[in-house]
Amino acid sequence: MRDVRPPAADGGEVDEDTVNDGAVARFHALRDAIRTAAAQVASAGRLDAVHAETLNDFSRRVPAAPQLVQNDAGEWVRRMHATGPSTDIALAAIASDATELFSGVRAAQLRACTGPNCPLFFLQDRPRRHWCSPGCGTRARAAAAYSRRTAGRRPTPAAG
Ligand SMILES: [Zn+2]
Question: Domain Zinc finger CGNR, which positions (predicted)?
Fold first, then answer.
């Protein structure tokens, strides 16, 4: 198994046994659930209840409560304090961020990148934005230009 060790909630090291194959499978399941939900929101503009429940299930696996803590500048800031296995805390934090994305005004901005073979999503902050990054935009424009240049040419004869 690959060495996958996220930092512990308190910033210390995690026991190697903490991230086992079961934890990796749960991370993959959450990743797949978020990807499916993102695709659905980006294309249909809404989320099915079954996907919402999957994210809710991951999100509520650990009890969490807001706490006031001082940062390095001595300012009081709000932080969530969660208890439980570190992997469950990480999964719950990721799922919680996803529920925020899929429930707010940003859900209406969520789009799938139209770049060639790009699996990513992005928030459309400008009406004419169609790509996740400038690199994807460049690849898409180059592919369109190549397609226009080769559209009128006869196909090359097959070898043999
Ligand atoms: Zn892209």
Answer: 110-149
Q: Which of 84, 109, 72 is nearest to 26 (CA)?
A: 84
How far apart CA 114 and CA 144 sit, in angstroms, is 12
Give the environment of ion ligand 1: residues with CB less than 5 A: 113, 115, 118, 120, 132, 136
How far apart are the CA of 110 and the centre of ligand 1, in A?
Answer: 13
Report the alpha-carbon distance of residue 102 to residue 35 in Å, rounded: 12
58 token code pair: 């991951």
- Give pTM, 2 decimals: 0.72
What distance in angstroms lies between residue 75's CA and the mean position of ligand 1's atoms? 39
What's the mean pLDDT when you consider all of the chain?
86
